[in-house]
Every structure is written in structure tokens, then in C-alpha cells.
Design brief:
The protein is α/β, with parallel strands linked by helices and about 425 residues long. It contains 13 helices and twelve strands. Helix 5 packs parallel to helix 6, helix 5 crosses helix 9 and helix 11 runs parallel beside helix 13. It is globular, with a radius of gyration of 22 Å.
Amino acid sequence: MPSQIKSGIQFSALGLRAKSPTIERLMTAALDNPKLLSLAAGFTDNASLPHNVVRSAVNELTRRESKETLQYGLNQGRPLLRKQLAVHLATWEPQLMDAAADTRFFVTNGSQQALYLAMQVLCEPGDIVLVDRPSYFVFLEMLVAMGVRAISMPVDEHGRLNQSALKQRLTELELSGDRQRIKAVYFVSYYSNPSSRSLDEVEKRELAVTLTGQGLVIPVIEDAAYRDLYFSERSATPSTLTLSEWADFPKLYLSTLTKPFATGLKVGYGYCTEPDWLARMLHTKGHHDFGSANFNQAIIERVITDGGFERQLGDIRPMYLRKMLALHETLIAEGLRELGWTWSKPEGGLYLWLEAPENLDTGLATAFCRKCIDAGVLYVPGELCFGDEAPANFIRMSFGVLGETDLREAALRFVKVARSYSV
């Protein structure tokens, strides 16, 4: 009788590190309890999604005799869409309007894929990426899964980059033999996720000077996903693409057409200054998906051509301002600041970033977090948003998806729990 051999799977190191993203678990918690008001997931507003604009674009595309939009497209992205993206970026950075600009763009399945591609071609397990403090927690979890170490760039009491502390940190890494493993620097530059803060021009220039002075002319990844989502006045701060101090750095500027238009289309994009870096990301992308969805790109292309993209931005900016105020002002009116909580009023983006009293732990596994969920309100624990030395008393609240009435109710529920911990 033949021996029974039980087969098994031997996972790679990457496979063993892979875990369900925290955002997925938070989304599941929200879906499992329809009475739960979620301030966690950074979704956009459901009521404002451009159904009619997309319907019109789809009708136009399907009426055409050409069926190319339903066929595979180019791995780098649709040529006309890349030209449109070059024009859009030039509204922010006029110096970049040149004939070659569109060849430096590539279209991805949301900007998240571009982040993964960048890390995949730059980093080996054990390498280091310098990140902002706080930083985009989904990116941080991606680094963990890849075996890459995130080190936060120090900030002062106002949240601004602390250049002297950064020099000291880099010196420590030099002494430990780790500095040679620093492969990139990453930050969310406008209306940041999670802090809603924007880096100012002085900070950006000084950061480049600090890195250059330390011999670290390394790839910089500037995540500008929220640049279009200002409330009233657009930021005057240039990107790293046009600041002279960053001229010698390899640069990858990332943004998206999902947050400011329709998240379900999952169309993100990047602008890369280095042909070799871009080529390697595109080679890798070809193995991922052989090109992002051609029809989704064609929809966006049509919407931009018809002016629907700019009209949507004109509609949602004042709407997000009202929603932010509904959450922000209710927290104030209910006395959260008197309980020792602090936060800044944002000028754009989708988030409030709250600091609790120092002795209050707001982490995912804490009694405070559980009590909030029991009270019917969900948030993102700030402990997730730090590359290292994570404090336990921060919270990210998103005002993206809930309506103004629900935002006020969520604030009431939250403050009620916070008050119970203040005695």
C-alpha cells in the first residue's frame, strides 16, 4: 500500500509577513455594524459621487464605432490621458509644461500601486525609508510586509520638520552602520493623511539641504494625493519637482484621480524624473497587470476633456469644508478641548488629527477604542501612523464619507466616551 504523503505549502518570507491591512479590518467592522458611524476609512462622500458625469462619459465611449477602449491598453497608460495629466500638473508647476512631460507620466491602479512599484524596485528586506511623522499608515504597513524599515523624520512641537534632530538621527544611523541602507525618503506633502498638515516651502528646501549635506542624494517620493482637495485657497508651496534644492535628487511625484473624482475608478498616476527608475517600475507593473484598466482610464480622459473633472472639484471643495466644520465645531462645542484634547483646523484634505491627553492610550486594542466602538463610533488609532517610536495618544478622524448630521452625531458619541475617561 503506497505511503500517504501529506503535502504542505512553504511560504516565502514575504508571504509569511503578509497580513490583512488594518484599513480592511476597520472597513469590515463598519460593514458588520450598520449603526456604527465610521470616522475611520478615508472614503470620499457618497452623495457627491459624479454618477451623471460618469454615465454620460460611458454612453459617449460606448456609442463610438471604435472599440479600443474595451481592449487592452498601454502599460504606461493612455497617451491622451498622460498629456492631460501633464497639463494638469503644469497648472501647479508651470515650469513642467514641455513636450516631453507626458512621457514621464505613468498611470496606475490607484496611487497605492505606484507606491508599491517604487518600493519593489528600490528596496530589499532590511533597507530603510525615511518617512514623515506622522505618515500614511497604509504605506507603513506595506513597508512592514516588504521587510523594509520605516524611520520617522523628527518634528518639533508644531509638527514641522526638525532639521537639527534629523541630522543627529542620520549621524546615529551612520555610527550604527545603517545609513547605507537608506534607500528613499517619503512624505505626504499637501493636507497630509493623517495630519491634514502641508509642508511649507522652507521645510521642503531645508530637508533637501540636510539630506545633501549628509551625502544622501536619494530617491524622494512626494505623495500629493490631496493637493487638489483644498477648501478655499490652493497651497502656494511648490513640489520637489521644481525646487532648486531638489534638482539632483531622483524624484517620483504621485497623485490620484480617485480622491478628487471617483474612488471606484482606481486611477492614480506618477511623474518620474529618472528614465531608468520609470522603466524599471513599468517593467514590474507589466508583471502585475499588463496595464491599468483601459476603460477606466478612458472614462477619466473623457471627463477631463468635457470639463467634468474641474466641475467636480468645484462642487466638492466647499462640501468638504462644510463637513469638516460639522465635525470640528461639534467637538469644540461639546467641550473636547476642555478635556485636554488638541488638534488643528485643516485647510484641506479629509482628516482631523487629534492628540489626546498624554496618559490616555487610544490604540486599537485598548479599552478606550472598544468603548468607542460600543458607543457606535470608529476611528483610526494614531499609533498606526508612525514609522517608529509611536506615541499611543493620537487619533485620525475622517469626515469624508459621513453626512453632516452623522458627523455631528459621531462627534457627540466620541466626546461622551472621552468625557468618561477624563475623571
